[in-house]
Amino acid sequence: MSSGADTKRAFRWTRWRRASQLLFVLFFLVLPLTNRAGQVEVLGTLSSLQVGAIDLVDPSAACSTMLASRQVSSVMLGGMILPLLLALTLGPVFCSWICPYGLLSEMIDKLRLRGRRRARRWRQLSKLRWATLATFMLLSLGLGLPVAATLSAPRLITVLPLELFFLGRASAGTLTLLGVLLAIELLLPRRIWCRALCPVGSTLVLFRTPWTMRVSWREPTCQPELLGANCVQVCSWNLDSRSMIAEQGCTNCGACVEGCPSDRRSLHFVPGKAVDVSDGRTIPVLNGRHEGPAQE
Amino acid sequence: MSRGRRSFFSSFFEEELRPPGARPGEEFLSLCIKCHRCTASCPYQSIKPAGWKYGFSVGTPIIEPREIPCYLCMICPEVCPTGALASVEKVDVDMGEAVVDTETCYAFRGILCRSCVDVCPYQGTAIFQNLVLEPVVDPKFCVGCGICVKACPAEPEAIRVLRG
What we know:
- By secondary structure, chain A is mainly alpha-helical.
- Chain A is 51% helix and 7% strand.
- In chain A, the strands form two sheets. A three-stranded antiparallel sheet of chain A has the order 1-2-3. In chain A, strands 5-4-6 form a three-stranded antiparallel sheet.
- In chain A, a hairpin with a 3-residue loop joins strand 1 and strand 2.
- The longest helix of chain A has 24 residues.
- Chain B is globular, with a radius of gyration of 16 Å.
- The chains are: A mainly alpha, B alpha+beta.
- At the A-B interface, helix 1, strand 2, helix 2, helix 3 and helix 8 of A face helix 1 and helix 2 of B.
């Protein structure tokens, strides 16, 4: 990596992301303690959280339960608004910046990779993702059980401290499901739950639009071959930031942006359609086709 | 409130006691997203996630009255986001009904005991003593909170809350 003194230092996206993840871990550790002390203004898990008068409901759980019960309620619909607004504007940042299970999965992946020279290339999982989400939703409808809500990894991981502080032990159901998730993390392809199976993330990826914040790149300065950089390996999901397709599920974690060794920082975040034209050569790469350099 | 009929599969598993305001049977299962806002809101720690012995209900909120019954503070129905627990007046709560086991109940065996009658929040209507001082439950008024189950000195308990 070339990091001369004259080089503009890349923004430490990963450092800030870790801080954000740890903040939420801390939040869900402290929350049950305050609830036990009688505080009921803020309560819940990442399935549904009440913050004063505001209800937040995980969109996949809300959809799943609406299909299962064939009922619609204002709280379920209204509770989805803020999570979906976040996904619409900043992308599925819930997965990379908020979800404590995502952090756990990243840590397990790091341990798995220890000692290995290089990661194997990942296959495209978009089809698997949509098939899994459709299966969960159809199962919800057929069985009359909110399957997606039950299997939500963020729910399971945030319900755990609640059970520990309220019951003094984890409940059998939560432990079983977390055990299954752990087996998937350890035995199946890297981070496959977060990348393709988790109904929470898949639902949020659905809401990536051309206006959603995404990673963009500047063609003339981006020469990974010359710099000997391997941007694809920098991405924890092995996505190529230069030929990224929206439905590949980039969570805007910022690892590629931070890891870009180019002096002029070829990769950067752009707020959706508003393309950075400062050098007139920014190329958004949504949907796999280059929209072409802006006219000078 | 009509109680949900039990499905073929759920008949294999133990019957669960739900927090107050719970929708009947399978409707509750279809609505509950197991967020446990109700668990976190309960000041008595009465509500807890069901174990595997409750079958499909695993992970959903239940009350085991022999450990901690429901003290009818009526906070939990208000925090449920999906309507699995619906707002309900305290007197209209219908979690189930208490049933006295006349074989093991002390009062039916000639021992003077009125533990269940004493603790009932609807004492006099939901549960009362008959002329020979045996406890009698009136299902019309019993809300199924299970406070009597907790108070029963018999081992195992001689009064239970049954659903439907």
